[in-house]
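Deliverable D2.4 — example input (C-alpha cells):
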C-alpha cells in the first residue's frame, strides 16, 4: 500500500502508528478531516491478516466517520483507531492505558469511543490516561449503552423514509422485515411493535429470534428467505454489503432503512435501487444516533439534549431524499454531497476569517 498516495487521494491529515512493547499494543490512529472540529471515532480491535490490512481499515473507517459526523450536524471531524490483536485473548490493562497516552499526546485532535472488539471497560482504562474518550462508564458521567439511542435514530429515520415513499410517516400496519436481532435491532423492533407494525424477522441466533417472536408477535423466517419477503420496509441490522447483485432482484420493499453499516456492496448498487424506485436511507446517516449520543458527553451529558439531536435524523433523511429527487441522484450520493457541502462551507468560513485576521494585523503593523 502506497500510504501517502492513498492519503493524498482522499485528503487525510494524519496517521499515527502506535507501539508499546510491554503490553503488546500495535495500533493505528487515523485522522481524516478536522475541518468541523476534533476527529471523533471509535477504537476497533481485530485480528487483521496484515499490518497493511489494519492501516487500510483505519483509513477507510476514519473517512467514513468524517461523513457520518458531518451529516449528523456535529462539530466534529472523522478519525478511527484500530488495534491489531484478538479481542478475546490479547487484551490487558497496560494496552489500553498505553493507547490512552498516545491519544493524550494528540492534544485533543482525536477523541475515541467504543467500537467492534472493545467495551466500556476498555474505554474506562483509556480514561485513566486521557479525557479524550467517550462511551465510558456512567459513573464517570457518560451516556451508557448507546444501542437504544441508535435504535431510536433508526426508527425516526425510517419514519422519514416512509413518509417519502408512502405519503405518511405512520408505520402502523406496515410490514417490516428486520435482518439481525442484536441489541440495536431488538430496541428498534420494540418501537415498531408499539406503533403497530407487522414484523418479519431473522437471525442466526435462535434465542434472539424467539425473544422477538414472543414479545412482539413477529413472524420468523430463515436468513435466506428474508430478502424476498412481501414487505413495505426492509431493515438490514446485521451484516454489511447485503444490497448486492444477488439480493436486489429479490427485494419487494419500497424502503430500505436499517442500522447495519456499509449496506451497499458497491456504489453501483445504490444506483440500481434508485432506478428501481426504492428509497434507501443511507446507513451512516440513519445509524448515527450512537455517535450523536456519545458526542453529547463532550458538553457534559444531558439525555434530553442528546435525544433532541437524535430526532434530527428525521430531518436529515428528509433533506437527503429531497436532494435525491431534485437532482435525480441516488440517496447515498445525496448524503455524501450534503456532508461534503457542510465541510466545504466551514472550510471557506475559516479561510475568510483567517484572511480577515491577517489583514487586520497587517494594517496595525
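Example output (designed residues):
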Amino acid at each position: 500500500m502506497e500510504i501517502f498516495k492513498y492519503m493524498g487521494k482522499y485528503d487525510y491529515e494524519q496517521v499515527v502508528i502506535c507501539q508499546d512493547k510491554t503490553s503488546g499494543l500495535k495500533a493505528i490512529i487515523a485522522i481524516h478531516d478536522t475541518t468541523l472540529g476534533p476527529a471523533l471515532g471509535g477504537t476497533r480491535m481485530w485480528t487483521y491478516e496484515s499490518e497493511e490490512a489494519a492501516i487500510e481499515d483505519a483509513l477507510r473507517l476514519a473517512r467514513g466517520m468524517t461523513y457520518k459526523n458531518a451529516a449528523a450536524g456535529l462539530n466534529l471531524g472523522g478519525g478511527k483507531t484500530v488495534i491489531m490483536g484478538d479481542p478475546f485473548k490479547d487484551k490487558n490493562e497496560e494496552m489500553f492505558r498505553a493507547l490512552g497516552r498516545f491519544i493524550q499526546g494528540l492534544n485533543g485532535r482525536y477523541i475515541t469511543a467504543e467500537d467492534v472488539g472493545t467495551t466500556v471497560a476498555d474505554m474506562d482504562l483509556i480514561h485513566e490516561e486521557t479525557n479524550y474518550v467517550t462511551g465510558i462508564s456512567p459513573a464517570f458521567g457518560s451516556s451508557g449503552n448507546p444501542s437504544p439511542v441508535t435504535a431510536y435514530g433508526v426508527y425516526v429515520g425510517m419514519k422519514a423514509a416512509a413518509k417519502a415513499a408512502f405519503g405518511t410517516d405512520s408505520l402502523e400496519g406496515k410490514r417490516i422485515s428486520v435482518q439481525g436481532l442484536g441489541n440495536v435491532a431488538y430496541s428498534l423492533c420494540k418501537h415498531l411493535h408499539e406503533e403497530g407494525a407487522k414484523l418479519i424477522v431473522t437471525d442466526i441466533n435462535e434465542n434472539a429470534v424467539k425473544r422477538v417472536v414472543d414479545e412482539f408477535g413477529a413472524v420468523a423466517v430463515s436468513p435466506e428467505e428474508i430478502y424476498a419477503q412481501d414487505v413495505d420496509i426492509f431493515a438490514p441490522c446485521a451484516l454489511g454489503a447485503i444490497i448486492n447483485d444477488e439480493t436486489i432482484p429479490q427485494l419487494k420493499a419500497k424502503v430500505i432503512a436499517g442500522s447495519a453499516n456499509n449496506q451497499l456492496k458497491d456504489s453501483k448498487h445504490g444506483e440500481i435501487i434508485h432506478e428501481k424506485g426504492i428509497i434507501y436511507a443511507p446507513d451512516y446517516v440513519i445509524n448515527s444516533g450512537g455517535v450523536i449520543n456519545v458526542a453529547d458527553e463532550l458538553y457534559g451529558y444531558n439525555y434530553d439534549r442528546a435525544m433532541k439531536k437524535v430526532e434530527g435524523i428525521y430531518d436529515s433523511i428528509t433533506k437527503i431524499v429531497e436532494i435525491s429527487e431534485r437532482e435525480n441522484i441516488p440517496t447515498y450520493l445525496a448524503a455524501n454531497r450534503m456532508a461534503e457541502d457542510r465541510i466545504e462551507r466551514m472550510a471557506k468560513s475559516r479561510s475568510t476569517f483567517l484572511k480577515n485576521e491577517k489583514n487586520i494585523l497587517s494594517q496595525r503593523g
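Residues 309 and 323 are 21 Å apart (CA to CA).
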